[in-house]
Amino acid sequence: MRNFSLSLILVMFVALFTTSCDDDDYYCSPIEGNWEIVDPPNVDYNEYSFFHDGTGAYYIEDYYGNSTYHFTWQIYGDSLYVYFNTGETWSFRWYISNGYLYLYRNGAVVPLIYAPF
User: Which long-range contacts link 36-40 to residues 24+ away (Cβ below 8 Å)?
Assistant: First the structure.
């Protein structure tokens, strides 16, 4: 019985350490997934797709037409950094509330609000 208990504890530790998240693991982020703009109403329709491997895609419908831009992303606390393949970097403060993603550009008081889809 003692060997069984020891084995069970060992299995629990192995399971815990193989499923824990590192600081470098993107797939632990709650922003992973697809998000579409819902507010404010005066911005061009756009979507973000954040993939588990730290890559993503930004889709926008504006006066240039429909465009998709690929990027990589990182989160540090409440800061989100989006690095586009064009060399441009966007930074936001972010949080999720009631299932919506709130993105604040640096210095902005009105957030961009996104719903999952």
Answer: 36/114, 36/115, 36/117, 37/112, 37/113, 37/114, 38/100, 38/113, 38/114, 38/115, 39/112, 39/113, 40/110, 40/112, 40/113
**What is the tens place of the pLDDT at every residue in 56-99?**
999 999 999 999 999 999 999 999 999 999 999 999 999 999 99
Cis peptide before 40 (omega within 30 of 0): yes
Instruction: Name the pTM for this structure.
Output: 0.76
Alpha-carbon gap, residue 63 to 75, rounded angstroms? 30
